[in-house]
Write a structure and sequence with these properties.
By secondary structure, this protein is mainly α. It has a single domain, classed as NCX, central ion-binding region (A middle domain of Talin 1, Up-down Bundle). It is about 75% helix and about 5% strand. The chain has 15 helices and five strands. It has helices spanning about 10-30, 45-70, 75-85, 85-100, 105-135, 165-175, 190-205, 220-225, 230-265, 270-295, 295-325, 335-355, 365-385, 390-420, 420-440, and strands at about 145, 155-160, 185, 335, 360-365. The strands form two sheets. A three-stranded antiparallel β-sheet has the order 1-2-5. Helix 1 (about 10-30) packs across helix 2, helix 2 runs antiparallel to helix 3 (about 75-85) and helix 5 (about 105-135) runs parallel beside helix 12. It is globular and about 60 Å long.
């Protein structure tokens, strides 16, 4: 929508105007942490001012990332985009981890619940929804990433084979995640491995070649025509401003949504696990939907996969760091058996989703399966907590989590076996890329194998 305005700068002005009500509210009440829905602003009011600000900032973030592709490797620009877009999720989870370090035992469970909810939303709604939106959108305009095929729900979205690095690193992080609950919490060793894995990934993509950016229209195309200094200034300002708006607005937005939900009888724990992540993931989903609507489905999916990778590594790893700082000593963020089950189902969902992507395609049928499995589990759990009381509700809910974990693992394993040649090729290409980037000339090679 914003890209269709006559002059590109007009779109930038509109995006900035969407942030004005929030900025006014933010500074009027005294800055970060001073806006409290239900106290100095109504829950609906918080949603009304913070929501449009997140939308406007998401567009600015997307434009900055697309503009940056002219001067840095596209994979690195997308990685920065992914980190900034999911920064709100980091902020929400860090809050609970900090409270846990200060002695709030329940806050530790909330931190894990929010983290697992965010990761499952990103795949169950994000990957599945964007794939279906891409296929739907192709009816209104061409998209080279979408292929129409005969048969029921057989249309397919093709992924860039250059994303093999991200898929492989995500697979490694997923395999490691299955062992996290066995340690009784998220501890220093988890932090070292997961954060270290992401650092290696960044080193590889930073050393990649700068490729000519894809043909753009609107704001990115306008800035691509400007001198390098102007482009860099816009990129830096876009990243800093939009990141700051999203970071400050998302917590009041999520809290406002939670309180609106509580008014309608939705339990707090359920709100924190599902509604808060929906709010904090909204910038990422808006950015990707924007890219898909520009027929840049490949870049959109790259951003989604990169987001999942940094959430599944940095988000988990940094929880123990925040907890330790708050506690005043190196420690392990504890959680109960229910949250252990939440981590296992999240890892199993990730395992299944990666199996889908090993052939660098996702069909409409596969997207629907991801969506249905995610939605049915959430609805079932909501039904349980509405009908039963603790401890029966917790026991039943945990049983459901184990059942879905097993289901994800079975169908994911079947897919991995069927696509074992794709997996071998994926691993071979990734090892070559890592070797070339860290030991060779730094060029990220062509992934056609």
């Amino acid at each position: 929508m914003l890209d269709r305005l006559r002059h590109p700068l007009s779109a930038v002005v509109v995006a900035l105007l969407l942030t004005v009500p929030w900025l006014y509210t933010f500074f009027t009440f005294g800055g970060y942490g001073a806006v409290h829905p239900g106290e100095n602003i109504t829950p609906v009011g918080a949603v009304a001012v913070a929501g449009p600000a997140i939308l406007g900032a998401a567009f600015l973030l997307a434009w900055a990332a697309e503009t940056a592709e002219k001067d840095v490797p596209q994979a690195f620009a997308i990685a920065v985009l992914a980190v900034l877009a999911v920064a709100p999720e980091y902020a929400v989870d860090a809050l609970y981890a900090w409270e846990a370090g200060a002695g709030d035992v329940q806050a530790a469970n909330l931190a894990v619940a929010n983290m697992t909810g965010a990761n499952r939303v990103l795949i169950g709604l994000g990957w599945a929804g964007i794939a279906l939106f891409s296929i739907y959108r192709v009816g209104r305009g061409g998209d080279p990433a979408v292929t129409k095929r005969s048969g029921f729900l057989n249309d397919v979205v093709s992924l860039d084979r250059a994303i093999s690095l991200e898929i492989t690193f995500l697979l490694v992080a997923t395999a490691f995640a299955f062992f996290v609950p066995l340690g009784g919490g998220i501890g220093p060793l988890d932090t070292i491995f997961l954060v270290g894995l992401y650092v290696v990934y960044l080193l590889v993509i930073i050393r990649g070649d700068v490729e000519p950016p894809e043909a753009n229209v609107g704001v990115p195309a306008y800035f691509h025509e400007h001198p390098r200094a102007s482009r860099i200034a816009f990129v830096l300002l876009g990243f800093v401003f939009s990141g700051a708006v999203i970071f400050t607005a998302v917590h009041p937005f999520a809290e406002g949504l939670e309180q609106v939900g509580l008014q309608y009888g939705i339990p707090e724990f359920f709100m924190i696990q599902w509604f808060a992540p929906l709010a904090s993931e909204s910038p990422e989903l808006i950015v990707v939907a924007y890219l898909v609507n520009k027929a840049r489905t490949t870049a959109g999916f790259n951003a989604l996969i990169s987001s999942k990778l940094n959430q599944w590594t940095l988000l988990i790893g940094t929880l123990a760091v925040v907890y330790s700082i708050s506690a005043g000593a190196v420690g392990t963020l504890p959680f109960d058996q229910k949250q252990a089950a939440e981590i296992w189902i999240t890892a199993a969902q990730s395992f299944f989703a990666i199996a889908i992507l090993t052939n660098f395609e996702i069909t409409a049928r596969e997207a629907v399966i991801l969506l249905v499995l995610f939605g049915s589990q959430v609805i079932t759990e909501f039904y349980i907590i509405q009908v039963y009381t603790d401890p029966a509700a917790t026991a039943l809910s945990t049983t459901v989590l184990y059942a879905y974990t097993a289901l994800y693992l079975v169908i994911g394993t079947v897919l991995f076996i069927q696509r074992r040649e794709n997996v071998r090729r994926l691993l071979r290409v990734t090892l070559r890329d890592v070797r070339d980037a860290l030991l060779g000339d730094g060029a990220r090679t062509d992934h056609g194998d």
